[in-house]
């Protein structure tokens, strides 16, 4: 099973997002874990590789399972560990190979085009404390079919 770690950097009422060129969707910087890497090491490394920034004291805010279904057939399954941070060191790169980096006002971030499950993950990181656990079911073209969250978001 593939494992990924993503970072949510909240600073001065903004969140750093990356606009992916394939769909034009916004996402949290992060990516695949490497063999033997802890989830915290992975989010720190991936965030730095994509943004140039070093997250200061990232905290685990969510553990999620993603399942891609084609009808009843499971096409893919992976886990994503979400971390939040409120500060950083180093400088933002002028260009990221993964997409366009953008500081988005927190009040506007949930209106950007993105995977529907990402909105729920971001909403939790913005408005709630603690760790959220969940499972998201998507079609192969990333339409959200259903989800379960603990604690649930009303």
Please give the structural blueprint.
Blueprint: E1 2-11, E2 14-19, E3 26-27, E4 30-32, H1 39-51, E5 54-55, E6 59-70, E7 73-85, E8 88-89, E9 100-105, H2 106-109, H3 116-127, E10 132-138, E11 144-150
Parallel strand pairs: 1-7, 6-10
Antiparallel strand pairs: 1-2, 1-4, 2-3, 2-9, 5-8, 6-7, 10-11
Word description of this protein:
This protein has 154 residues and is α+β, with helices and mostly antiparallel strands. It has a single domain, classed as Nucleoside Triphosphate Pyrophosphohydrolase. Helices cover 19% and strands 45% of the residues. Strand 10 and strand 11 form a beta hairpin. The longest helix is centred in the N-terminal third of the chain and has 13 residues. It starts with a strand and ends with a strand.
In short:
With 154 residues, the chain is of the alpha+beta class.
Radius of gyration: 15 Å
Mean of all residue-level pLDDT scores: 97
Here the CATH topology equals Nucleoside Triphosphate Pyrophosphohydrolase
Largest sheet: 9 strands, mixed
CATH superfamily: Nucleoside Triphosphate Pyrophosphohydrolase
Domain module count:
1
| Low-pLDDT segments | none
Approximate shape: globular
Structural class by sheet pairing and helices? alpha+beta
Helix content: 10-25%
Count helical runs: 3
Just name the CATH architecture. Answer: Alpha-Beta Complex
* Number of beta strands: 11
